[in-house]
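Consider the following input, taken from an annotated entry for Glycosylphosphatidylinositol anchor attachment 1 protein (Drosophila erecta).
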Amino acid sequence: MGLLSDPSISTQSKLVDGLARHVRKVCYALYVAGVAWFFCLALPEFNHGTYLSENALSPGLVYPEIRIDANRLAIQLLEELQRERKDHLSTTPHAWIAAKMNEFGLETHTHNYTLRYPFGGGKEYHGKNIYGILRAPRIASTEGIVFAAPYRAASSVHSDIAASVPLLLAFADFARRKNYWAKDLIFLVTEQEQLGMQAWLEAYHDGDRDLDVSKAYLRPGNLPARAGSLQAALNIEVQDLEIDHVDVRIEGLNGKLPNLDMFNLVQRIMAREGITSGYKQAPRKKRRHSQSHFEQNLRQMLTMLASQSSGVPTGNHGLFHRYRIDALTIAANRRATHATLKGSPGSAAVPLLKAIEGIARSLNNLLERFHQSFFFYVLVNNDRYISIGDYMPALVALVACAFLKAYLTWSTLPATNAELERAAGWPKEQEQVAEVEQENLDPDKFELPYGSVLIYLTATLLIGFLCNVLPLQQYFLEIPMGAAPLTTSVLSFLSLIGFILPFVVVLPPGGLELLHVAFLLIYGCALIVIGLLNFALGFFAAVLTVPLVIALETKEENTRSTLRNTIRLATLAMNPMMVIYVIVLAMTLYQFPELPLQKIMLRAATAAMDASAYGLIDSVIYGNWLYFVICTIFLPLWIICWTLSLSKRRDYADYLDFDESPSTSPQTHPQAKVKTN
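Applying the prediction step yields:
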């Protein structure tokens, strides 16, 4: 009966042992399958054509009512604004904008906000937004739509988009003459790029009511007037009234996207007006057709994921998404030559004004928020997309490697004192002699050091937590250093502590194996959660790190010396700060190929330091959680991975009790007794 009950000959045990022997092959097969699935999504058979799910959006596709007089008004306003800009080289002509909104019959208000710069030593910056409200004549102010245009001063280093404000005002004048609006229309002009929009949104929804003014970095103030609940928003950035194409920008804060119906609506209306538009739309002279459709689709997918992974919005529209407001930006780029559209002089802005009118009328007809189409998708091209149900299997296949290896590692953990002896690497002769002393062995199961591993995990998480807290402490802010050097110094110091930690703290027997299981489980769960919130970041992190996780082993007898050293070097290269530097170096090399390598490396180092500081600032002001994810998740995981790659363990002899004489060492005396406490 003992033979029948022997667990070593069970089918489950044989299956686990077989998988354990070939775990790397199985995991690499899953890795290749996940990457191959993602590449297959660029094929037409694996993606879908776009369509409008919400029938209420159809009114915007009817014949537009805007005429040539709106174009003349836009040209006149642009000429007036250019004269005002000569007197406001580094400021915003608030008085002129407010006067024009009042002239067009809008309910005009001014919004003031204050920024307390985190690294400015208490220095404050003040800003002002101008907005006008066109109340819905057919219903109470229960819902609203925002039409926004950022204003950039003449001294700005960014591209000139001065034509955005005149175009916005021209459309406001047209909208005031119509009585079919069922929602309040808000015409907003912001300054200081995304900072002004963030302050206005916080003031619109919360204001200073629940804000600790002494600790807040952005004090949004309070709005003198509000409209209804915001349903959608359209951000307008126009370089010139005569445009070449429209780039439709959709990426929002932390990789969020507007409803796919809104993107499809803009695309259809732009096509109706004869405007070339699309996601990442290129100028006509730079459009290449030499690539195959598969290459173009794959390039589009990777470009979108790269833009999403940073979590930085591509326009002011991206800040609306955190309030569950669907928004996007139409960025109209100027024509290379000032040849007017359709051969009609002085009517260049009419197609764009008609497109804005169509978008406004469609949004005005919505009975509820966007909900019927997808919020999680990847655009293959302007008329094809991939839904979350199609691209998530690629990430699941990559993460499955971690969970499979965690299970197999757990199943091979030492469960008894006899297994602990075998794990200690004793020669077979000593094991045979030790069997004679079996009656002296503790029959109880070997207790894994859960407490030690938990303390070690807590220490790594504490290092990540300090990366978020220390750079903003008053003591560090008083150090006479800039934001970038200070942030980089703190991150480097804490990364150095994580590097040294495995040399100082050595886990007891069984702790390294248990830490390996915990690492695999935390790693897999973290990637799944990150992938659900921001697929691009989770997928890129998985593609980059899963091969290293598969190769990682805590048992040195299972890994060749060359491979073990390679894993350690790869682990060092996977340090989050090193990865950031390599990414910035590649971008610098791509943008400035004419520079010598030494200057490129120095410029990349400076840019990487700036990126660390900007990531922290974006985290505390806008709520971008990329810096938080890197410090709180990726850095602790790297410390654990570095610990496992070193495989520094307390000798199993520390767990065993031997006589003091030299002749009774573990190497010479086989009759060792396991400690019994």
